[in-house]
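Quick one:
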Amino acid sequence: MRAGTVLREARFRAGLTQRELARLADMPQPAISRIERDRVSPRLDTLDELLRACRLALDLIDRPGRDVDRSLIRERLRLSVAERARPAATEWNRAQTFRPGADRR
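Output:
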C-alpha cells in the first residue's frame, strides 16, 4: 500500500481535514496533499509523525519471503519428482554425518 493511501485513510479515520492534520503535525497543508496524491514519498519518520497526529502508529512487520529468489524455485519445479529427489537424498545423506552419535570416520 502506498504512503499516500495510508495517510489519507488514517486522516479520514481520525476525522481530520488536510488543514487540521497540517496544523497538528506543524507542516504545510500542500505537503500533506502532495503525500496523499503520491506526488512525493515521505520519509519514514515523517509518515510516522503524520500517523501519530491521526492517533495511529506505524507498525513495521517483517514479511518473510519478500527477498526470495523465485527464479530458483521455478527452475526446481520444472524438474521431475525424481530429479528433485536425487539431490535432496544426497544432501540428506551428507547431513547425517552431523547427527549426534554418527560415525565420523
